[in-house]
Amino acid sequence: MTYRELQTRAEKLSEDMIRHGVRPRDRVGIYAPKSVGTVAALLGTLYSRGAYVPVDCSAPPARNAGIFADASIRLAVVAESLLEGFRGAWDARSLDVLEPLGDGLVLVRGVDAEGDSVADTNARATPADVAYILYTSGSTGKPKGVVHTHQSALSFIDWCSEAFTPTAADRFSSHAPFHFDLSILDLYVPLKHGATVVLIDEELGKQPLRLAPVIAASGITVWYSTPSILRVLAEYGRLDRLEFPSLRTVLFAGEVFPVKHLRALKKIWRVPRFFNLYGPTETNVCTYYEIPDEIPDDRTEPFPIGFTCSGDRAIVADESGREVAKGEEGELLVTGGSVMREYWNLPARTAQAFYIDAGGTAWYRTGDVVRESSTDGYIFVGRRDRMVKRRGYRVELGEIEAALYRHPLVTEAAVAAVPDEENGVSIRAFLSLSTANRPSLVEMKRFCIEHLPAYMVPDKFYFPESLPKTSTDKIDYQRLLATV
Amino acid sequence: MESAAESDIRGSIKDYILAEFLPGENPDSLSDDTPLITGGILDSIATVKLIVFLEESFGVRIEPHEMNADFLNFLPDIASLVEERRRQA
Lengths: 484, 89
Prior knowledge:
The structure holds two protein chains of two kinds. By secondary structure, chain A is α/β, with parallel strands linked by helices. Chain A has helices spanning 3-19, 36-47, 61-70, 80-89, 150-164, 182-193, 208-217, 227-236, 259-268, 347-353, 397-404, 441-451, 477-482; strands spanning 27-31, 51-54, 75-79, 97-102, 105-109, 130-136, 144-149, 171-174, 196-199, 222-225, 249-253, 273-278, 287-290, 307-308, 312-317, 330-336, 342-343, 354-356, 362-373, 377-383, 387-390, 393-396, 410-420, 424-433, 460-462.
């Protein structure tokens, strides 16, 4: 598809959206798998001066309906194939299909909320307007919306231009689904430079044996994904049987890349430069580190998250926001162009997320504990809270606990994560029940997949009679983990 | 009608799934009508591992378009897919 064709389709979609009531600053839900039509829907939303809210097609429809209600979307672009499930989840409100959009997509009426939309349909979008809202796992069981403006997205994209010097000859992979923040680089960096975007179908993206020949044949020059998918590509993709002459840059983000697997991949893909990109959804990418050509065989320590991207500033601080001495551990705080504006409709949560210094600068508290090395920039040490990364996705263990409490037999639920070389982390659920009859693992997994995305389903379940408590009567996670 | 070979294949696939993805589970709770993919037992990476197991254990090739819940969601479906491939070979 050419730029002209994409432009025409996005403009047509934008006209449809405006005709059905989208006004500047309205939210438009996107509930459709990756396709050219979906890209046009994202751009069409931006052309309507609205903000798009993409959701995970594989997540339970009720979770997605909850996100759309929270964002009070004006309209949604929904894949026809997902309409049935969505209809059930959108229950009390009637699902009103407005018109087909082609490509298997339909336009659906959203919530009739006025919100902060601007009545003047001619109002110009400003850099401070919301461009998109990405929902991530929330510790209380409810996903929270990370609000990015045109300005914060652009600041990040401009840094990418500087760091990776893309040209119109480049072909970028678009592997991440659109509700995942990696998609911002995948889509907008190539569009800015007139390069090509190679959309990787979400099903294909999970099948290393089939994916590897596509990467080779489509002449991808810049690959970007989570380490999880690179690991399965290296392990099962039979990469050594193929040639990848075009591939010049491999970017990964979202979780720690175990060195053993990174080394294996680099032994096959010798030519490209590898970069570890770091940043919570709230900051886009805010630090980066280029992986050296040779990784010693005895190295097991993960690579640093590295140096701050231009446009952002970072400090390592103690709990009061005071900068610690170089080399000491502290929380990474980030300020600058690429940082989010707020959490959608959560002013108290937003206030907690920022530290305001004496000069009035708002620093985003990443919750990541790091230390700064004199040569390698920042080194990731751990988390301050109960958030873990699995397959590159953020998982708040509290959200899993909240889902488990919905099980009729569960009286107490605790979820903990332990490091695991195979999967990065292994998620363990501890449940005390109101009955002596334990549900089977099969039953518990099925219950979880009805309430949570697949990447949040615990690997193991334990059924102690009661959960150990601390002296303040909180669940004692240390003791729980010691029992397994 | 299920052939004897198919029943053996189904048994070894079941053993593999129990050992690999449901350690400690009572084998009876994994039945022929337990949904594997839509039931949260096989996630994307587990599905890849299962494919590697099938290809290496039974010397068959699973086609890319078959690597999803339409073909791999239930034990009997997986067994008949493998058996069909073996007959074709």
